[in-house]
TrEMBL record:
Residues 64-150 form the Cytochrome c domain. The lineage of its organism: Bacteria, Pseudomonadati, Pseudomonadota, Alphaproteobacteria, Sphingomonadales. InterPro entries: Cyt_c-like_dom (IPR009056), Cyt_c-like_dom_sf (IPR036909). It comes from the Bacteria. One of its GO terms (molecular function) is heme binding. Pfam families: Cytochrome_CBB3 (PF13442). Residues 161-192 have a biased composition (Basic and acidic residues). Residues 159-192 are annotated as: Disordered. Keywords: Heme, Iron, Metal-binding. This is Cytochrome c.
């Protein structure tokens, strides 16, 4: 019993020393310690799975939903997550954890889990929450598109246009230039 209490005290002391001395390197240029990385990823996976399991999924994802979701995806997600034949932005390479390439990662998440992730985001990772600014119908379109990504051809992916004009939930539409999306030179998917 004394042994267990001493061990607990030693563990607590180590945790406090790490927290207060700056012992853990938070630099994004440094990799996570594998134990920390495992704990964070496993916590995140189980947290999402348990919270998303009861969410009812639309009966089917129509091509119109996928196309609408594509517009949102290209405006708000591809710079971090890339696309079919499209790599993520250079600065997104240095986010820790690195935003996964959804073309492959989408397979490991159910549609309702993608919906939950997009709606709520993930704390301490850089994955934003889109629920506060987008309604559920828009988020289902995005989920439909993300789930279609693994089987999409590069041609089909390229054929979708970024929706830089999309309506935000409960917001008046102010036209071009008022939103935080900028057309990047060379980003020639848009024909206006
Ligand atoms: C600023 C960068 C950024 C943007 C923008 C962003 N994400 Fe993420 N996203 C991340 C990061 C970082 C993670 C990794 C979270 C983790 O590992 O816990 C992530 C994780 C995810 C995951 C879980 C994948 C996995 O295997 O971990 C999904 C699904 C996802 N994002 C979808 C989207 C969608 C859809 C959009 C657009 C509506 C979007 N994200 C916008 C950074 C971003």
């Amino acid at each position: 019993m004394i042994g267990a209490a001493t061990l607990l005290l030693v563990i607590l002391a180590i945790i406090f020393i790490v927290i207060f001395t700056g012992g853990y390197n938070v630099a994004a240029t440094d990799r996570h310690n594998p134990v920390v990385a495992w704990a964070l990823t496993t916590t995140m996976t189980h947290s999402v799975q348990s919270r998303a399991s009861e969410i009812p999924v639309p009966a089917k994802f129509t091509p119109a939903m996928v196309a609408a979701g594509a517009g949102e995806y290209k405006a708000m997600c591809s710079r971090c997550h890339g696309g079919v034949g499209e790599s993520r932005a250079e600065w997104a390479e240095t986010i820790r954890p690195k935003p996964p390439a959804l073309v492959s990662a989408a397979r490991q998440w159910k549609a309702q889990e993608v919906f939950w992730l997009v709606k709520h985001g993930v704390k301490m990772t850089g994955m934003p929450a889109f629920g506060p600014t987008h309604n559920d119908a828009t988020i289902w379109n995005i989920a439909a598109f993300v789930k279609a990504l693994p089987d999409m051809s590069a041609e089909q992916y390229a054929s979708y246009k970024a929706d830089h004009d999309h309506h935000h939930d409960g917001e008046e539409h102010h036209g071009h230039g008022t939103e935080d999306h900028h057309h990047t030179p060379g980003d020639d998917a848009h024909e206006h």
